[in-house]
Amino acid sequence: MPRIVRGHAGGEIYHLINRGNGRQQVFHKDQDYQAFVKLLGEAGERFPVTLLAYCLMPNHFHLLVRPDSGAELSRWMQWLMTSHVRRYHRHYGTSGHVWQGRYKSFIVQDDGHLLTVIRYIEGNPVKANIVASAADWEWSSHLSRSMRGSLDELPIELPSQWTEYVNAPLTGPELDKLQNSIDRQTPYGDEAWQIIVCRERGWGKLKKSDTNVNYPI
Fold first, then answer.
1. Range 75-110 burial, b when 16+ CB lie within 10 A, else e
2. pLDDT string in tens for the chain (217-residue length)
3. Quick one: which H or E segment has residue 200?
């Protein structure tokens, strides 16, 4: 299946990813992370977009959101990126691109696939060997969830031993299928659901490699 043409819909869950321009580091110190987390809160007050999970890494971020409408998600993301770039240049006395031109996004099915995506997001610092446990990384929803409860109500219940679950690496098939959705920006879920999502949006037929055949839910 060719790369999905950008077109957000309301009510769906989206995994959003962006990296520093040229993969450069964007968050250099605690104040940089704090400023971005603050902007996430302000964005939620300005636009009807629910933040379900996030993780800020030195040169990229992962956000899991559910917008009321596709237009609101576009406005939410534009405001967030513009506000952050303005703050970054003002603080560091720089100019030019901070982030890559286009962020990646794909729809996530709200079943066991959603758990896999949250695990992937909150487990990023562990996978990158920055910390030994997701609970040790201050700049993700994992710590926010454990300290203050969920950022916004999740549509699925998390396992009781969530930290241990996040710290455990994804299986090869889980990671391969998720990476395919990240790279190609294709819906992440079971095959029947993927077909329905693509048909409703006129995205064409999925290639065999884009479906989750035999994917363990």
1. bbbeebbebbbebbeeeeeeeeebbbeebbbbbbbb
2. 444 444 555 689 999 999 999 999 999 999 999 999 999 999 999 999 999 999 999 999 999 999 988 789 999 999 999 999 999 999 999 999 999 988 999 999 999 999 999 999 999 999 999 999 999 999 999 988 766 554 778 888 999 899 999 999 999 999 999 999 999 999 999 999 999 988 888 776 665 555 543 333 2
3. helix 191-201
Site of tokens 């999502």: 197
pTM, rounded to two decimals: 0.88
Measure CA 43 to chain center. 15
CATH fold, domain 13-170, is: Alpha-Beta Plaits (3.30.70)
Question: How many residues would you count in the chain?
Answer: 217
Interatomic CA distance for residues 61 and 16, integer angstroms? 8
- Rounded Cα distance between 198 and 203, Å, is 5
Cβ–Cβ < 8 Å for 46, 67: no
Please list, in sequence order, all residues whose beta carbon lies within 8 angstroms of the beta carbon of residue 70, skipping any fewer than 6 positions away. Answer: 7, 8, 9, 10
Can you tell me the distance from the alpha carbon of 134 to that of 140, in angstroms, rounded to the nearest whole number? 8
142 vs 205: CA distance, rounded Å: 36
